[in-house]
Amino acid sequence: MTIVATGPAASAPAPAADRGVGPLLRAWRERRRVSQLELALRADSSARHISFIETGRSRPSEEMVLRLAEHLDVPVRERNSLLLAAGYAPHYPETPLDDPALDALRDGMERLIQGYEPYPALVVDAGYTVVAANRGIAMLLEGVPEKLMTPVPNAMRLTLHPEGMAPRIRNLREWRGHLLAQMERQIALQRSDELRALYEEVAGYPVPEDAQDDEPAEPVAYFALPLRIEHDGRILSFVSSISTFNTPMDVTVAELAIETFLPADPATAKYLRTLAG
Question: How far is CA 136 from the centre of its chain?
Answer without folding.
Answer: 20
